[in-house]
Design goal:
With 179 residues, this protein is mainly alpha-helical. Helices cover 74% and strands 0% of the residues. The chain is built from seven helices and no strands. It has helices at 2-18, 23-26, 37-52, 56-88, 94-112, 125-138, 142-170. 31% of the residues are buried.
């Protein structure tokens, strides 16, 4: 059991480092400031191609860029959802605003962390993103709803990547570039 915890914590440290690229790489002109599902798709494909070609360093850089992008866009979308709720029903956006802040703070803490750790949020971000998409659908904003659904799926995928990487490490394999 202790070995499993050590492996889990090692993976968390590795993924924290990978999902927190330098400011320089996070602000490159190629990274859009708004959610663009196609950017995520291209980044993920490029990471898989680099990994398949044996270029673990490039694959890991692309994974980190993609994961960071998705996490930041998910936080932004949750804040947007809070604003939508506030605009639709007085005062109802406060709970979502708090959730968005919790996720933002957790990701900031992970970026600064020198040791592995986890934190229970009390909600599932991709479920909240699906609720946001449902709200957009009710407002007849189908294009926006589809984009937010894809963001929710991408966020869930990034969280599942943490588990895949942990399993690889546990099996003695190199998790770099696996995203």
């Amino acid at each position: 059991m202790r070995t499993h915890l050590i492996v889990f914590y090692a993976v968390l440290v590795l993924m924290t480092a990978c999902s927190s690229p330098s400011r320089e790489s996070a602000n490159t002109p190629s990274t859009p400031s708004q959610w663009q599902p196609e950017f995520w798709d291209r980044t993920l494909l490029a990471a898989k191609q680099a990994n398949g070609a044996g270029d673990k360093l490039s694959a890991e850089t692309l994974c980190a860029q993609g994961i960071h992008y998705v996490e930041q866009q998910a936080i932004r979308a949750l804040f947007d959802f809070a604003g939508l709720q506030e605009g639709q029903m007085q005062g109802s956006g406060q709970s979502m605003h708090i959730k968005a802040q919790q996720l933002e703070q957790m990701k900031a803490q992970q970026a600064r962390a020198t040791q592995a750790g986890s934190r229970y949020l009390g909600f599932v971000p991709w479920v909240e993103l699906d609720a946001y998409a449902d709200s957009l659908t009710k407002l007849h904003r189908e294009i926006d709803a589809t984009a937010i659904r894809r963001l929710g799926a991408a966020y869930k995928y990034t969280q599942e990547a943490f588990l895949r990487r942990a399993l690889l490490m546990r099996g003695g394999k190199d998790p770099r570039g696996e995203c």
